[in-house]
Structure formats: C-alpha cells, structure tokens
Design a protein that fits this description.
Layout: H1 3-21, H2 45-63, H3 72-76, H4 85-100
Helix pairs in contact: 1-2, 1-4
Length: 102
C-alpha cells in the first residue's frame, strides 16, 4: 500500500470514528469532495476538531510519526487545507513528505 492509500485509510477510519460520535444528520460521507468547513459541511466546529484529532492519531500511529495537522501552513493556506477531504489528504501527504525530507 502506498502513502496515499495509507493516508486515505487513516482518513476513512477517522470519518468512521467521528460519525459514531455525532448525530445522524451531522455525519459526513467519505468522499474526497466532502466539505469539512463552511455552510455545506455537516460538521460543526467540535466535529471538525474531532476529525482533526482522530486523523492526527491515526496518521501518527500508522506512520510512526508525530504530525500536527494544524500548523502555520494550514493557518495561512488561502484555499483551506480543511475545505474538503481531498485538501486534508493532500496536506497530510505534504507533511509526511516534509518530515521524510522528500
């Protein structure tokens, strides 16, 4: 399994974990276009934080690293690394590549 597949699996696990914690109407679909923030997102701020914490835990465990998903890049990204699952996946892959020095 390559890095992208492993990241996608970790994100899928995180979505499933969050969906177990939120009301049915606030559950998110595991689809790359699923919005994580904004009016179109079913997640409230607590749901988003739960997803980020879960994703960090899953990535850190799966890759044996210590990544923080909320960093200077995430805060300064005009496009928003949390706008949807695809953007979050890409952000995680960039962080992993930076940590590996590639």
């Amino acid at each position: 399994m390559d890095v992208e597949e492993r990241v996608m699996q970790a994100l899928q696990n995180s979505v499933e974990e969050v969906n177990q914690q939120v009301a049915e109407e606030n559950r998110i679909d595991f689809d790359l276009s699923t919005p994580l923030i904004g009016d179109d997102s079913p997640l409230d701020s607590l749901g988003l934080v739960s997803l980020i914490v879960s994703a960090e835990g899953n990535i850190n465990q799966d890759f044996d690293v210590s990544l923080a998903l909320i960093d200077a890049e995430a805060m300064n990204d005009q496009q928003g690394v949390f706008r949807n699952l695809a953007a979050l996946r890409d952000h995680i892959i960039r962080l992993l590549q930076d940590q590996a020095g590639t």
